[in-house]
Amino acid sequence: MSPKAPEDQYTAEPFVPDGADLPALRRAAAGCHGCPLHREATQTVFGAGDTHARVMLVGEQPGDQEDRQGRPFVGPAGKLLDRALAEAGIDPAHAYVTNAVKHFKFTQAEPRKRRIHKAPSLREMTACGPWLAAELALVEPELIVILGATAGKALLGSSFRVGQVRGTVLEEEIHGRPERLVPTVHPSAVLRADDREQAYQGLVADLKVAARALTGKPERKTNA
């Protein structure tokens, strides 16, 4: 068993190989013990998709189905996201999808009971940051779509509020690289919404902003 590191020393950095391509990073991430989340998760869930993608979508963490299958966004939220991307004019097959945290964090009342998602802490997100930085450096997307508050905090800091900036194009330095980012809600929030159709249309509208940013068309801001 790996020694338990103090929480302020959690980091994946020692596990990230220098000069690795994405397949090598994925293999290395499978053995990451940079924070305690690996102990309960089934496996590491690394990013997937087009390695030359123009757009990278960053979510929070794997869910139950992702943890079992070892691939990001394969559960209900992922299926909804693919539908919303296609409706917005972004081909899901040409995107790269990943999460700020690569292990499933959950609570479970008893063995064999349903595993309930639990949001990762800021320290756990920070610990996993070197994997996301390595993915960004290799994929070099033209645009990052932030899916939800946790991903936003992982990339932009703890003051990030998705409701304040969703559907806008931000320009920030992320892990030493100038990036353009479009924040929106996580698709799982759409599935939990009281008015699911309205929430879904809001997600599509935000993704259309991302699609227009990729084509270079200027955004029209309204007060509506």
Question: What is the topology?
Answer:
Layout: H1 22-29, E1 48-49, E2 55-59, H2 64-69, H3 76-88, E3 95-99, E4 106-107, E5 116-117, H4 122-139, E6 143-147, H5 149-156, H6 162-165, E7 170-174, E8 177-184, H7 187-192, H8 196-215
Parallel strand pairs: 2-3, 2-6, 6-8
Antiparallel strand pairs: 1-3, 4-5, 7-8
Helix pairs in contact: 3-8, 4-5
Q: Which features characterize this protein?
A:
single chain, 224 residues, alpha/beta, Uracil-DNA Glycosylase, subunit E, 6-stranded mixed β-sheet, disordered C terminus, iron, Uracil-DNA_glycosylase-like, Ura-DNA_glyco_family4, Uracil-DNA_glycosylase-like_sf, transferase
Question: Residue ranges: pLDDT <50 for 5 or more in a row?
Answer: 220-224
SS class:
alpha/beta
Overall tally of domains: 1
Q: Radius of gyration from the CA trace?
A: 17 Å
Q: Can you give the helix content as a percent range?
A: 25-40%
Strand order of the largest sheet: 1-3-2-6-8-7
3D shape: globular
Q: Count of DSSP E strands?
A: 8
What is the N-to-C order of secondary-structure elements (H for helix, E for strand)?
HEEHHEEEHEHHEEHH
- Classify the fold: give the CATH topology: Uracil-DNA Glycosylase, subunit E
CATH class: Alpha Beta
Quaternary structure annotation: single chain
**First-residue to last-residue Cα separation:** 55 Å
Number of helices: 8
Q: From the 3D coordinates, which CATH architecture would you assign?
A: 3-Layer(aba) Sandwich
- Quote the beta fraction: 15-25%
Average predicted confidence as pLDDT: 92
Keywords: 4Fe-4S, DNA damage, DNA repair, Hydrolase, Iron, Iron-sulfur, Metal-binding, Nucleotidyltransferase, Transferase
Pfam families: UDG (PF03167)
Organism: Streptomyces echinatus
Domain Uracil-DNA glycosylase-like: 46-208
